[in-house]
Specification:
The chain is an alpha+beta fold.
Length: 75
């Protein structure tokens, strides 16, 4: 469940609020009655293996483009 705190309280009690977030609580910071930010516990992104798309770079990848293709890109 998320708790709503006003900006002034967030400024005054930032360390305590961050400790609550570290314990898993979600905090919404509001300016007046308008929510403006949500503090949630940080999660490391999952590791992704490089090369997860089945694709091979063609051998001619580094060769110069034909003149007609260059002209199409420059138009």
């Amino acid at each position: 469940m998320e708790r709503v705190v006003k900006v002034q309280e967030a400024k005054t009690r930032l360390s305590a609020i961050l400790a609550d977030v570290e314990r898993g609580e979600e905090i919404v910071i509001a300016r007046g009655d308008v929510p403006v930010a949500r503090l949630i516990p940080f999660q490391e992104p999952a590791a992704r293996e490089l090369g997860f798309v089945p694709y091979r770079v063609p051998e001619q990848f580094d060769e110069p483009l034909p003149e007609e293709e260059l002209a199409a890109w420059e138009a």
